[in-house]
Amino acid sequence: MVPQKIVSVHLQESALKALEQVAASTEEKKNTDCAQIGELIPALPFEAITKQGSVSIDSTGGGDQELREEREKSRSEKRSEPHDELDSLSERETSMGKHHHLHLSSCHECFELENSTIESVRFASSENIPDLPDDCSASVDEVIDGGLARELKRVNLTGKPPNVLIYVGSDPMKIKFEKIKSVIKECIDTNSYTIYQLVEEQVLKAPWLDNSLLLVIATEEPISEENHKQFLTYLSKGGKILGLSALFTFGTIQIRSKSELKKTIQELVFYKADNSEIKLNFLTSGNVFEEDVKGNFRTVKSLSHLNNTDEDMIIVQLPYGDCGGEAILCQIYLEMDISSTTQTQEDFNLLKMNNVKRYEVLKEILTLLGLSCELSEVPSLTPVYLLSPNEDIRISFLKWLGKKKDAQGLIKSSKMTLKFVSSYKPEMEITPSLIPVVTDVGGFSSEHFSLQMYQQNLLTKKLGKIVLLAEVTSTTMNLLDGLMFDLPQEMDLIAIAVQQTQGKGRGGNVWLSPVGCALSTLHISIPLCSQLGQRIPFIQHLVSLAVVESVRSIPGYQDIDLRVKWPNDIYYSDHMKLGGVLVNSTLMGNTFHILIGCGFNVNNSSPTICINDLIMEYNKKSMTKLRPLTTDYLIARSVTVLERLIDMFQEKGPNGVLPLYYKYWIHAGKQVHLWSEEGPVAWIVGIDDCGFLQVHEEGKGVESVHPDGNSFDMLKNLIISKQQ
């Protein structure tokens, strides 16, 4: 037999003992088992592996020529795919849109109470990375022969995380599989599990039965008798099954069709393990569960029912066999992409507003089935790279920097210390308080940020000319703290992060920010004696307006329903928040030095909504083909628009920008309560010359109000009066 792959295997003590126990029994089956391995290897245990050219290592001693030719053909096809700049704008971000798994510590607070100024995100799509890295890619049946795999059952010889298999029936393009895989990866600890597709031809092959922690069945196609029997065999071995709108059942549970429910949004009640309830509205398959009860013996536990007269069972949990096998079967579309399932704007809005609860339910189900849905580890901090779209300005900044830093290359501030180095070495220390900044960035590249894209769309005289870019940093608000004073006149700084681990919001709120969110802190300087210098609260309004205008001023994108909410938020219509602004100002002499923290969801659609969701929905409704946007593109455009708005304000005062602000704000004609929910009713009428909200209370005329911490909440119509 010719080896097809060489992998390193670390054998735990328990695994060595298991090998010793089965060594004798496997020796006599050697020839037969070798033949079985030769038969299985072309499929390598699941289809996804063969599509990753970097996973397999051909033996130098020879090998199956046909298999190698097939792999080489696959590699050459990948290399020959066309890539133009316009395509890269959408493809890079949309592939990035399946993002890293990062969570908030309190999703309900940020979603329902708006306790941060930037839409905090608990879930994000997982990044599209190869399924199996070289050091842990082999399943048990690749390392040893098929017979031994069956003998060892779940002995984890390679240290590889448990497998999650997804069966979707016929799906030759893997479209449905990839969508479901993305949703599952957003819920589980992706460092602990590996997800594969179980294709039709592999269902009846034995090795997966013993090497899989969970089988997800997500097909509405009829399941053949042979496959049904195989799935029950898997359960009898202690396996777990999650059915997603599938026709798979067993035991006393039966499926009954209700055509009036098919693909309609229904309210349902889900019961958590702690007996608390979750009520949510979601899309149903049109099927419900019924139990054929014999006597008083019930084996089915109802986890969820529709909130209708019949209280139809919609999610059930049932055991199987004596080895701990169990299944949770669902007849709501927990797995489906909302954008692909909705027909009306009302459906889209309702499902998006229930998206957080959808993920909460799915996580609860996966936890019941034994998977870990705990928070992923916070990603490690990375060095910062000093970039500029203008080489002359970069050189000028480096000359200024040479006078500013000490002999060790350090610039210290009250928040952190920056250590400027020509190149980064892995042994360099990186902590939230000590960050290396790389100044020699020749050949710099990033999967998530294109300096060329940023350069092409940054059309400013001064703002954003020097970029400090970090893949992962604690917060961009601290990076510029020691650099913003005494800068050369021709430049201002911007710090951009792909991810933040300690992002800052109003009131000291902290959140984890995912890939796909545009995260930046911009430095601007404003003369005290200027129009804007006398009305500094207007800065936050200008920044949120700049983000909205940066999208809606793109030809064709003017009807994307992105809006501003007073005082500092970016909203989808008046439904959901997808971004916000935090402003810190310091007066030095006659100049305000202002740090503007801004974050908005561009391509991270879970658990609420992002700009690319709005674009996709608009394309469906208007039959257009607008491209999705990227974070680097929109950050550059936002800074460009902001500089122009500042210039307009300095020239004409508030009246220079308010017409555009009112065009996009969500408060026109809104009625609110003052002081408390039982307080007097007032109508919002506009913004005064200082940036405070103006309301008209019947019998008292117009008065100005302002936010107090996080007390202003349009979802609850609360306003704190300025005079309070």
Automatic annotation (TrEMBL):
Belongs to the biotin--protein ligase family. This is Holocarboxylase synthetase. Keywords: Ligase. InterPro entries: aa-tRNA-synth_II/BPL/LPL, Biotin_CoA_COase_ligase, BPL_LPL_catalytic. Residues 65-96 have a biased composition (Basic and acidic residues). The keyword Ligase applies. Residues 53-97 are annotated as: Disordered. CDD domains: BPL.
